[in-house]
Design brief:
The complex is a heterodimer of chains A (about 140) and B (about 800).
Chain A (H helix, E strand, L loop, with lengths): L4 E7 L2 E6 L5 E4 L13 E7 L2 E6 L1 H4 L12 E7 L2 E6 L2 E7 L13 H6 E7 L2 E6 L1 H6 L1 H4 L2
Parallel strand pairs in A: 2-10, 5-7
Antiparallel strand pairs in A: 1-2, 1-8, 3-6, 4-5, 6-7, 9-10
Chain B lengths: L12 H29 L4 H20 L3 H18 L7 H24 L8 H7 L20 H9 L8 H28 L3 H24 L1 E3 L1 H4 L2 H12 L3 E6 L4 E3 H22 L3 H6 L6 E10 L2 E8 L6 H10 L5 H6 L2 H6 L22 H10 L3 E7 L3 E9 L3 E10 L2 E6 L3 E6 L5 E6 L2 E6 L2 E7 H5 L13 E5 L7 E5 L1 E11 L3 H4 L4 E5 L7 E4 L1 H8 L12 H12 L4 E7 L4 E5 L3 E8 L3 E4 L2 E6 L2 E4 L11 E8 L4 E14 L4 E3 L6 E7 L2 E6 L1 H7 L1 H8 L5 E5 L5 H12 L3 E4 L10 E4 L16 E5 L12 E2 L3 H12 L5
Parallel strand pairs in B: 2-4, 9-18, 13-15, 20-29, 30-31, 30-32, 32-33, 33-34
Antiparallel strand pairs in B: 1-3, 4-5, 5-7, 6-7, 8-9, 8-16, 10-14, 11-12, 12-13, 14-15, 16-17, 17-18, 19-20, 19-26, 21-25, 22-23, 23-24, 25-26, 27-28, 28-29
């Protein structure tokens, strides 16, 4: 059943669905600590239960200008290659069970989105991109800057 | 170290016992394998043998308790054989060692099966045990690994001490550590609230006590995770031995720096990469014997693994003296594999060419061998190391060897950190790299702008100046007070130092360092992250990386040590036995002698050489040594003597100057007859006569033995009324190697001979205490045919008489 569970959120100004098994938790952050000289999509560091997480700004990953982090903003915590990351979310909508199958992406996406999207899924009369959070973390190290 | 694959279910108390046994056995097997190889290299090493015996005995004991008949039988057989050796009933040879290793392997297999099934599988071990049975005259044809100085004996002692330990699952340890860190954060929060609420002093005092014990606990928990890195090195000698044997290569394997401490988890992550690199070095790096000979290399290849702490990193170097990497061959291979196109290949720089070996699926070997070309490539090695925030570096010298450096951050460790501020936020600097802290506006500091760069001069010493804000690409923070600006003199590594200018110094703190995300580590400026007591993450600066990022040469003038040269020197020292000291002898001929027979080179005044009894001797300090020379040079000035030492006697060989120390070439053209020159070798294309120390020592064996004998014969001068003995005779006697005391001087020691100056008394032997007596007469003519006195100015007759009486000990 877990496979059918999705987190619906608005990240980088776009409503997307994230597979719930890829997600650790959703938390709020205070003011992150900046990381000078880091790639532009690194929005900073913050601590959660004595672990340090790296905050990622998805706007930069898909090619938009960065947005400042607002105190109390919600972030999606994921774990990639044993490091903790958090994706800044514009809005967290819901965790819901979607019975519809994931389908191949139809149509042409912006290059930034094409990199992070895996599939599409139909939910409440809207087509959502299914994105893999790990793509937000790994790919920009090759392309950014 | 817990080998995860051995760990099975943990349902019952029995399973717990079994798991403990498996974990302990895995550890012992790794340890014993290495120890046995070291012992094989030096079978006389009794301590090593005893240690191995104890290890095997431990397995046997625990297995009996758990009712594992096969394990018990196997360990019993090994214990039995080792005990025979201990009792001197059996010789240690390669067959025995291979047999014991075979048993250890079978034990390892059984443990793996035990871990999976929870029960000992049925099977037959007669073959393995039989291999250990004594064979009458087993031909000892197997290959020998040339010297494996695994560890010092004292290391081994401490290792055995550490067996007194209990096993705790890693996740439990982690949760304790996280828990303690959370407690610390909660304490800080609580402390702030206490201060704000204005609680009374007794509450604050008891809170402080709590606070102290929390700090102590945090320290202990962190130490629980640390382990000496030689745990990681322990299985390597065995791997090297087996592989060298399989491939018919001769390899000397060394490890150093085993005392460096590393986090256990980090260690697990380096284990496989390290083993892989060592296997690669043996399989691909080290050439076959004939190729090494053709390349003029020592037949025995050297592979060394060393660990050291450098700044805030731990550096593990795996160095071999094999063929190194050929960038062109790598490119050809990559093109053939279609990993890159020919056009891309042309665009590659030298470093990028080498980096091709990190491509997935890339194997440097022309053909895939059973040993290393198995798909576990350098890409996996790099991925593993990068996972913990480390980097892999290659230092290649084509044809001469390859060094692979694994640099891992000292993360997950507790270090003492200096907190500094710059650009409005805090950063940590490892305290160990900080040499001095000064106020930038202080009297002792002068800052000069030179050609766009900045230079700090502190008490006459100059340092390149880095401003932390500019390194980080940030501007100065508006809130910073210029008066607070401080200089931190940083010494990131041996022979390097620079001044780092920061906005303010905050304080010292014990910090738990964890790796930062890969893209943050990739900036090269940070060595990790840490969570200080205020709960806000702080970045640990990479004091070495900042240098690289700023492209500043921070080597201290006159003190810069090329690390490669250092490593070279170390490797050279390890090969002492096969090294040749080149020198120019007193006739300006270039000759060589094995370095290992030279005790040292002495510089003595020419007057220290003298002739005595037809031989040249040298007085060095208060000792006298024979010298290989026809005549004493005499005159002023000084000369150099090579002191040859064969373990008992010393012989001095005069030379004009030392030229060089080179590796002893493999090809020696022996001379036809034994003599001073054992043969001729070519060094740098020039023929060099090789001195035969054996022949030399033989020539001087008698004299040398006397010279180094603890006791020189003692002459007592009796009845020396006019002082002639003291003034005229004693110097001659002393120079001939006797000690002299005059009649009245008391002495505990019975003299070997008595010299009497009066001709009274008829017998030449003092009946009372059996001391021979030589009588000296003043008249040149003998009194008669029975007169055995010696004319006192007849030097030769006197010395002859002494020699007769004492038994010719002195030449």
């Amino acid at each position: 059943m877990m496979e059918k569970l999705y987190l619906i959120a608005r990240i980088a100004d776009t409503r997307v669905a994230l597979r719930s098994r890829a997600i650790h938790s959703v938390v709020t952050v205070g003011t992150p600590v900046e990381v000078p000289a880091a790639p532009p999509h690194v929005a900073g560091l913050f601590a959660l239960r004595s672990r340090v997480f790296t905050l990622i700004d998805p706007h930069v990953v898909v090619g938009l200008p960065p947005v400042p982090v607002a105190p109390g903003q919600r972030v999606i915590v994921v774990e990639v290659a044993q490091h903790g990351y958090a994706l800044l979310a514009d809005e967290i909508e819901d965790v819901c069970f979607i019975d519809a199958p994931e389908t191949r992406i139809a149509g042409k996406l912006l290059p930034g989105w094409a990199r992070v999207a895996d599939a599409m899924i139909e939910h409440q009369d809207a087509s959502l991109l299914v994105v893999d959070p790990s793509h937000f973390i790994t790919l920009p190290t090759l392309k950014a800057a | 170290m817990v080998k995860p694959q051995f760990l099975g279910r943990t349902d019952t108390a029995m399973d717990d016992l079994l798991n403990d046994f498996l974990a302990e056995t895995a550890e012992i097997l790794a340890e014993a394998g290495g120890a046995i190889v070291a012992w094989e290299a030096d079978p006389a090493d009794r301590a090593q043998l005893d240690a191995i015996f104890r290890l095997v005995h431990t397995i046997k004991g625990s297995s009996g308790f758990l009712a594992l008949p096969r394990v018990t039988a196997l360990s019993h057989a090994a214990e039995d054989a080792l005990d025979q050796v201990r009792r001197g009933n059996r010789q240690a040879n390669a067959a025995l060692v291979s047999g014991v290793l075979g048993i250890l392997d079978r034990l390892g297999d059984l443990c793996t099966a035990l871990g999976q099934d929870g029960a000992e599988p049925a099977g037959d071990d007669r073959e393995v045990i039989g291999a250990l049975a004594e064979q009458g005259a087993a031909p000892d044809a197997s290959f020998e690994v040339a010297g494996v100085p695994l560890r010092r004996d004292d290391d081994f002692g401490t290792e055995l001490q550490s067996w007194r330990s209990i096993r705790v699952p890693l996740p439990l340890l982690d949760s304790v550590m996280t828990g303690v860190t959370d407690i610390v954060l909660a304490r800080n929060e609580f402390a702030r609230m206490l201060r704000e609420s204005g609680a009374d002093l007794s509450v604050i005092a008891s809170f402080d006590r709590l606070s102290d014990s929390i700090a102590g606990m945090r320290q202990s928990v962190s130490q629980m995770r640390m382990q000496r890195i030689d745990k990681l090195f322990a299985p390597l000698p065995r791997i090297v031995r087996d592989l060298a044997q399989d491939l018919g290569k001769k390899i000397a394997f060394q490890t150093s720096g085993g005392e460096v401490e590393l986090d256990r988890e980090m260690m697990e992550n380096i284990r496989d990469p390290l083993i892989h690199i060592v296997r690669n070095a043996i399989d691909h790096g080290v050439e076959p014997l004939e190729d090494r000979v053709a390349a003029g290399k020592d037949i025995t290849a050297t592979i060394s693994v060393s660990a050291r702490q450098s700044g805030n990193q731990i550096e593990i170097a795996i160095q071999d003296d094999g063929r190194g990497l050929s960038p062109d061959a790598l490119v050809a291979k990559a093109v053939a594999m279609r990993a890159i196109t020919a056009a891309e290949a042309r665009a590659l720089g030298p470093k990028e060419k080498l980096d091709l070996i990190f491509r997935p699926g890339f194997s440097t070997a022309a053909e895939v061998t059973a040993i290393s070309g198995r798909g576990v490539g350098m890409d996996i090695v790099r991925a593993n190391v990068e996972k913990i925030g480390g980097i892999v570096e290659l230092r290649n010298e084509e044809g001469r060897g390859l060094t692979i450096l694994l640099r891992v951050p000292m993360t997950l460790t507790i270090i003492s950190g200096l907190m500094v501020r710059a650009a409005g936020q805090y950063f940590a600097i490892p305290r160990g790299a900080v040499r001095e802290i000064l106020l930038e506006g202080g009297d002792t500091v002068r800052i000069d702008r030179v050609g766009g760069g900045e230079l700090a001069t502190v008490r006459g010493e100059q340092y390149p100046l880095l401003r932390l804000e500019s390194v980080l690409g940030r501007g100065r923070h508006h809130g910073d007070d210029v008066d607070d600006r401080a200089l931190v003199i940083v010494r990131p590594g041996q022979g390097q130092s620079y001044a780092l200018s920061v906005a303010a110094i905050h304080d010292h703190e014990e910090l738990v360092i964890k790796p930062a995300a890969p893209m943050i580590m990739a900036t090269g400026l940070y060595a990790g992250t840490t969570l200080p007591d205020n709960g806000r993450p702080v970045l640990l600066l990479d004091v070495q990386g900042m240098l690289a990022a700023s492209a500043i040469d921070a080597s201290e003038a006159g003190r810069s040590h090329d690390r490669m040269a250092e490593a070279e020197a170390e490797a050279a020292a390890a090969r002492n036995a096969a090294q040749l000291l080149l020198f120019r002898d007193t006739n300006a001929r270039v000759r060589g002698v094995r370095l290992s027979v030279i005790e040292r080179v002495e510089e003595v005044p020419a007057s220290a050489l003298f002739e005595s009894a037809g031989r040249v001797q040298a007085q060095i300090g208060d000792e006298i040594f024979p010298v290989h020379a026809a005549t004493a040079p005499g005159g002023e000035g000084s000369l150099k003597l090579l002191r040859l030492y064969d373990g008992q006697a010393v012989l001095c060989y005069p030379i004009a100057e030392v030229i060089d120390i080179v590796r002893l070439p493999d090809a020696v053209q022996p001379s036809a007859a034994p003599g001073l020159v054992a043969g001729v070798v070519l060094v740098g294309g020039e023929p060099v006569e090789l001195i035969d120390p054996f022949w030399l020592m033989e020539q001087y064996a008698v004299g040398a033995a006397a010279a180094t004998a603890l006791r020189q014969p003692l002459c007592r001068l009796a009845d020396d009324h006019d002082g002639w003995g003291d003034n005229f005779l004693a110097p001659i006697l002393r120079s001939a190697g006797y000690r002299v005391i005059s009649g009245d001087t008391p002495s505990d020691e019975a003299p070997d001979v008595l010299l009497c100056f009066t001709a009274e008394g008829a017998r030449s032997r003092d009946a009372a205490d059996g001391v021979p007596v030589i009588r000296l007469r003043s008249s040149i003519a003998a009194a008669g045919p029975g007169d055995d006195t010696v004319y006192r100015y007849d030097r030769q007759a006197l010395l002859d008489a002494l020699r007769r009486q004492i038994g010719g000990q002195v030449a």
